[in-house]
Amino acid sequence: MTNKDKEESVNFLDAPNKWRALFAEAWGTFLLVLVSAGAVAVSAMTGEITKEMQVIAPGLMVMVIIYFMGAVSGAHINPAVTVAFACRRHFPWKRVPWYLLAQLMGALLAAAFLKAMFGPMGNVGATVPYPGFGNWKVLIMETVLTTGLINTILGTAAGPGNIGNNGALAIGGYIALAGLWASPLTGASMNAVRTLAPDLVRGDLSTTGIYVLASLLGTLIAVGFEWILKGKPSHHADKEAQGTITKDGT
Predict the structure, then answer these.
(1) Given Cys at both, which of 10, 80, 194, 218 links 147, Cβ 3.0 to 4.6 Å?
(2) What does pTM read for this prediction?
(3) Is the separation of the CB atoms in 223 and 91 below 8 Å?
(4) How many CB atoms lie within 10 A of CB 30?
(5) Residue 195, CB half-sphere, CA atoms under 13 Å: how many?
(6) Which CATH architecture has domain 3-241?
(7) 238: Cβ contacts below 8 Å, ≥ 6 apart
(8) What are the beta bridge partners of residue 158?
(9) SS3 state at 139
(10) 93-114 b/e with 16+ CB inside 10 Å = b?
(11) Percentages (nearest 5) of helix, strand, coil residues in the chain
(12) Which residue, among 137, 149, 126, has the nearest Cα to 218 in the 3D structure?
């Protein structure tokens, strides 16, 4: 992580950049849901996208998003990430509702776009449990997957955001790897708005709550693990989240 990366990771919290950051979160989440849900919908329509392609695509998309907008908003594009950064006191709680709203809007627009383009194919790319795989198993599986994702993010992030080569490669790689083995069972969502948006657009919320709860539980567990691994949040993290770090790091 270069000094420039560290400086940029703080600048997106400056008040003049608020709306730019929110637009970036909405656009980034739109792209993520477009690719992840879109791959499922197109596969159902054409049969030409394999399961491997479906799960690798969102990992690559997240990697690209971190590269092109990590310095603009932190590239959270997932409510669990925003809440985790806030719990670690790297991100101001007053910004959390705005980020969550932007992420939800981006995800809903993507799901609506897919519905307009492909109709109900693939349940609009919804993440649904494998038939016969019990709700408790879905909850546990998604909780574990989310815990690993958030730990990967917190371990590679620059302060309050995902910025730089380490984060992009590690996070994108984790998403693809988790999907390769868990997607057939749960869809490997690990993202509340990734599940919620297609479910709202297709009008079926029967399993949505399981995924949302798993995302929250996984986030809290990961924050607890981060406390064990790195200790409690630091005074430096507080200053960083408030945007009061100067260029020399003081």
Answers:
(1) 218
(2) 0.88
(3) no
(4) 22
(5) 25
(6) Up-down Bundle (1.20)
(7) 89
(8) 161
(9) helix
(10) eebbeebbebbbbbbbbbbebb
(11) 75, 0, 25
(12) 149
pLDDT tens digit sequence for 35-57: 999 999 999 999 999 999 999 99
β-bridge mates for residue 30, sequence order? none
Please return the burial class of 91, using the count of CB atoms within 10 Å of its CB with bins 0-12, 13-18 and 19+: buried
Instruction: Give the pLDDT confidence of 209-229 residue by residue, as tens digits.
Output: 999 999 999 999 999 999 999
CB-based contacts of 120, cutoff 8 Å, min separation 6 = 202
The string of pLDDT tens digits covering residues 136-157 is: 999 999 999 999 999 999 999 8
147's tokens: 């815990």
Tokens of 171: 């996070």
Q: How far apart are CA 176 and CA 54, in angstroms?
A: 9
Identity of residue 91? F
